[in-house]
Design goal:
Blueprint lengths: L10 H14 L12 H9 L4 H6 L6 H5 L3 H12 L25 H16 L2 H16 L2 H12 L3 H12 L4 H5 L5 H21 L2 H15 L5 H14 L3 H10 L4 H11 L6 H6 L3 H7 L5 H13 L11 H15 L1 H4 L9 H26 L13 H16 L3 H28 L20 H9 L9 H21 L2
Helix pairs in contact: 1-6, 6-7, 7-11, 8-9, 8-11, 9-22, 9-23, 9-25, 11-12, 11-13, 12-14, 13-14, 13-21, 17-21, 19-22, 19-23, 21-22, 22-23, 23-24, 23-25
């Protein structure tokens, strides 16, 4: 509710993809170059992210929006409140609406299209947008039972398993990845269930888990190209335990996901369809050559900070020491594997570690594409959303290996820091900026927020201006519940 519509990473274009599938019963491939006319009207009346404005100056920033007169803002707000879907997809015709997400596999959009069709027929543009967000969050929440079942496989006791699940739920970097309309939510849920199925198969060798791996791999390949390195990780994990036949079976079954990537190659000249690769005509040879030119220090720095907290598409940030506290505590937990290296030989820990390394290799590939396109060495941390469960398990297992039963205190401390960062970044960084109480400095940094008690009800009233039916106390109630339940679970995890 309090993350402005369209502020999620690439969210308007993912939303337009859903609309295209719902109204045209086809993917936006070939015959559709731009997003919809409704999205275009939204982008030209609603304040946009700082990142979007830098690429398209015609999109107003939050600073520009809140400095306008009440009458001008009221007119734009009313235009958005009155915006409804016509029932037919009408393509926009301007550069800002270029549909650059048309390389994404269609499974998430096909699953979401019926929800869009029903909501858009009954409700306004903004309500439909919000309902699709809620639907997406419901998909992402399937991570929770998968994570719980995975922890029961990895840990002999419920205590460490509960702590690992808690660390996922309170991790700040989870929410910008799945709070938006995007296929990342489905990818995260499918990946978590795949982690469980792989660990369960290697531990029990029951065929039903292998069948689950096959189904989840195919579904994942039809959801996001990130399942290509995940597929490689699964095969490597199986081979590391001598499961040659199972690895070959997974490879053969993955053929079920190939048609989309063949289509990508025919349309874009590359199987992933990444805009950077397509625009800059990057080849495998040039990608390999770029490895020696990457600024690896900047690669790690950006990956770490944007993974812990990314501030949605305006890339709002917090103090660097806050990122460092969480990342160094995580590294401290991993030191436990140096004390007990045999833990890595476990049939549940080792495959998860192999999957993680394979995915990092995929992120390095993305970094080469970005570098060759922009000369900047980065890979954004929100790509790691699907691997937060593995990070949590590795941290908890390492903490208990390092400190024994006292490891629960380190896990509880990390969870407490994560919970605090979620609340702090929302109340004192994101919401004040979206509500016009802070602004970007000329350097691009965010001005400090000096709150007064009257600012907090003002923030909510401004951010719920398109949803008059939502009581203003509801976000505060939900935040309070989150804090109380999170605090109770942290205390329980220390026992």
């Amino acid at each position: 509710m309090l993350t402005p519509l369209g502020e999620g990473l690439d969210e308007p274009w993912h939303f337009a993809y859903v609309q295209h599938v719902a109204q045209n019963h086809a993917v936006p491939r070939g015959h559709t170059k731009f997003a919809s006319l409704e999205i275009d009207r939204f982008l030209h009346n609603h304040p946009g992210s700082w990142s979007l404005h830098r690429n398209f100056p015609e999109v107003q920033t939050y600073e520009e929006y809140w400095t306008q007169s009440n009458d001008d803002r009221g007119a734009m707000d009313q235009a958005i409140r009155d915006l409804r879907f016509s029932g037919a997809f009408t393509e926009a015709e301007v550069g800002v609406d270029w549909q650059y997400e048309n390389h994404q596999p269609p499974l998430y959009y096909a699953l979401t299209a019926p929800v869009f069709a029903a909501a858009s027929h009954l409700f306004s543009f903004t309500t439909t947008f919000l309902l699709i967000r809620i639907w997406t969050m419901l998909i992402a929440s399937l991570m929770v039972p998968a994570m719980w079942m995975l922890t029961r496989l990895v840990f002999d006791e419920k205590g460490p398993g509960f702590a690992a699940l808690l660390a996922v739920v309170v991790f700040p970097g989870l929410y910008p990845g799945v709070v938006r309309v995007s296929n990342d939510a489905l990818a995260a849920a499918l990946a978590c269930w795949l982690f469980f199925a792989l660990a369960a198969y290697l531990k029990t060798e029951r065929p039903k888990y292998l069948y689950a791996i096959l189904a989840l791999i195919v579904a994942g390949l039809w959801t996001k190209a990130f399942f290509i390195p995940i597929l490689a990780g699964v095969i490597l994990a199986l081979l590391s335990f001598g499961k040659v036949r199972a690895a070959l079976t997974v490879l053969i079954a993955s053929i079920g996901g190939i048609p989309w990537y063949v289509s990508n190659y025919l349309f874009f000249g590359t199987i992933t369809g990444l805009p950077e690769t397509v625009i800059s005509h990057i080849t495998i040879a040039t990608s390999l050559q770029a490895l020696s030119s990457l600024d690896w220090q900047n690669f790690v720095r950006v990956l770490r900070s944007s993974h812990v907290w990314i501030g949605n598409w305006s890339l709002l940030g917090v103090r660097s020491w806050m990122y460092q506290v969480i990342s160094w505590m995580f590294m401290l937990g991993l030191l436990g594997f140096l004390r007990r290296p045999g833990r890595f030989l476990d049939r549940t820990i080792r495959p998860l570690a192999i999957l993680y390394v394979a995915f990092i290799a995929g992120l390095v590939y993305i970094a080469t594409q970005v570098f060759l396109h922009t000369s900047v060495s980065v890979a954004e941390g929100w790509y790691l959303t699907s691997f937060i469960p593995i990070e949590s398990i590795l941290f908890v297992a390492g903490a208990y290996a390092l400190l024994g039963g006292c490891g629960r205190w380190l896990v509880a401390l990390l969870s407490m820091c994560c919970l605090g960062l979620v609340v702090y970044s929302a109340l004192f960084v994101a919401l004040p900026y979206y509500a016009g109480l802070t602004h970007h400095n000329p350097s691009g940094s965010l001005a400090s927020f000096h709150p007064s008690m009257s600012d907090f009800p003002l923030m909510v009233s401004r951010l719920l201006r398109y949803q008059p039916g939502v009581p203003h106390f509801l976000p505060w109630l939900l935040l309070l519940i989150f804090v109380l339940v999170g605090g109770y679970c942290i205390l329980r995890a220390k026992r």
